[in-house]
Design a protein that fits this description.
84% helix; rod-shaped; 63 residues; mainly alpha
Length: 63
């Protein structure tokens, strides 16, 4: 596709609102997924640390 100006590029042949809103929704979903994954990894790591601490405290009390 060829555009004569930036205005033509942004309007995308009259379908600019649909095109750019689709890009926006996609970007928001990708960012939300990244945030969700980072939070999940952080929670999993802290849970693992708590489990390791609990396990080591149980080993010390068995003797």
């Amino acid at each position: 596709m060829e555009w004569a100006s930036w205005s033509d590029f942004w309007s995308m042949g009259g379908r600019g609102f649909f095109v750019w809103s689709a890009y926006g929704v996609t970007a928001i979903c990708v960012l939300a997924e990244i945030v969700w994954l980072r939070r999940s990894v952080r929670q999993s790591r802290s849970r693992l640390v708590r489990m390791q601490q609990w396990d080591s405290s149980q080993e010390g009390s068995e003797s």
